[in-house]
Design brief:
The structure is a single chain. The protein contains 14 helices and twelve strands. The chain has 385 residues and is an alpha/beta fold. It has a twelve-stranded mixed sheet. Helix 5 links the parallel strand 2 and strand 3. Helix 1 packs antiparallel against helix 3, helix 2 crosses helix 12 and helix 6 runs parallel beside helix 8.
């Protein structure tokens, strides 16, 4: 196995350097970038990891800590029909001109490349992905990619009832719906728009069409909705939901404050006082969620503990923003424009090398909640949820 891995790694590096060399005359800048990326791959320590563990997964999507990135989140748009306080600054955001956003063809080209290298799950995000007119067609094109096992979407649910039958037919496997309150008046305060009943209708439509579980994302903020945690747990009694309580995270413009954050342990203690029989559920190694279930309830609850107990050590996620930038960490401010390389005519080999170098630079873990709050990063709406 080690000998085969060594041969494979050698071919990979020789191919990376060779591809760059063959194009050196006509595309000097791209070739230099690809060559640098190949050298970075060789010196990153991933070669040693592959020799020790074999080569079942593309080295380009494996970082220097051995994390295999088989999950890609693609933002389809920066626009949204809500204005959630934790996601979008009150004054709004400067949107990228349409000509600088990825086209459907570019999205599929990049998705095909990542799937070829080992990505098995793609999640479509935004902004609000379901306001993009070609979203059903994009799902249908993704469904044709051999090797892709899961196509998911994260939506605010406003347009879900209308579009879900077509999305399901096109190949959509999984749904996350954002809902931070079960009180209509409070909904309007948090998202600065109407639409509570449309979201609820979308949740019920998803369960009717057989999505199991339907994941409901709830960002818990002190002074806003921490008093509804028990109501959300009760919401799982008769519906196949996975209510995911998300710790409030800092992004540009959302006025994050440590005092607003409700830790998962605080929420868990509150829930156990009401349901002491709460059961811990097993989870996959790469899961971001700590999951629990009240016995005899149809659904379950989970906690996304990005702030109080990060899960960086098992992270398998990469992100592409709507304007085509690759982010290897949600909380990192380092980005690489795949759009620019794609539009300048970069070959598949060159793109893979550039992606591999970016993945190789991924840090062991994020900077911690207090440092993150002081770092320059995009607002969440411009990253993709």
């Amino acid at each position: 196995m080690a000998a085969a891995a060594a041969a494979w790694w050698g071919r990979l590096l020789r191919g990376a350097r060779g591809a760059a060399s063959r194009r050196a005359c006509s595309t000097g800048a791209r070739a230099r970038a690809a060559s640098a990326a190949a050298q970075e791959l060789q010196s990153s320590g991933r070669g040693r990891f592959v020799l020790e563990h074999g080569a079942p997964f593309s080295a380009f999507l494996m970082d220097s800590f051995g994390r295999q990135h088989n999950y890609l989140r693609i933002s389809l748009t920066e626009k949204c029909n809500l204005r959630c306080q934790y996601c979008m600054p009150e004054e709004g955001v400067q949107l990228t001109p349409k000509s600088e956003l990825l086209t459907a063809e570019e999205i599929i080209t990049l998705a095909r490349l990542f799937v070829k290298e080992g990505v098995e799950k793609i999640r479509l995000t935004g902004g609000e992905p379901l306001i993009r007119p070609d979203v059903v067609d994009i799902v249908g094109q993704l469904y044709k990619l051999e090797g892709l096992k899961t196509i998911a979407v994260t939506t605010n649910g406003i347009n879900l009832t209308r579009l879900l039958p077509r999305l399901k037919e096109a190949g959509l496997n999984a749904i996350n719906i954002s809902l931070d309150t079960l009180v209509p008046a409070k909904f309007e305060f948090i998202v600065r728009r109407k639409g509570f009943h449309k979201v609820m209708e979308g949740i019920h439509k998803a369960t009717e069409l057989g999505y199991h579980p339907v994941k409901v994302n709830c960002v818990v903020m002190r002074g806003f909705n921490e008093d509804e945690v028990l109501d959300f747990v009760d919401f799982t009694k008769d519906l196949p939901l996975d209510v995911r309580f998300i710790e409030y995270m800092p992004f540009d413009g959302n006025k994050w404050n440590f005092k607003k954050m409700v830790s998962y342990k605080e929420m868990l203690d509150t829930i156990k006082q009401r349901w002491p029989e709460l059961e811990k559920l097993p989870c996959e190694t790469s899961s971001t969620a700590k999951s629990y279930k009240v016995p005899h309830f149809q659904g379950q609850i989970s906690f996304i503990t990005s702030m109080s107990e990060h899960f960086c050590g098992s992270c398998n996620r990469l992100r592409i923003t709507a304007d085509g930038n690759l982010k290897v960490c949600l909380f990192g401010n380092s980005e690489v424009s795949l759009r620019d390389h794609l539009r300048s005519g970069a070959s598949e080999e060159e793109l893979i090398q550039i992606i591999g170098a970016a993945v190789g630079r991924k840090k062991k873990h994020h900077a911690g909640m207090f440092n993150i709050s002081r770092m320059k990063n995009r607002p969440m709406v411009l990253i993709g949820g």
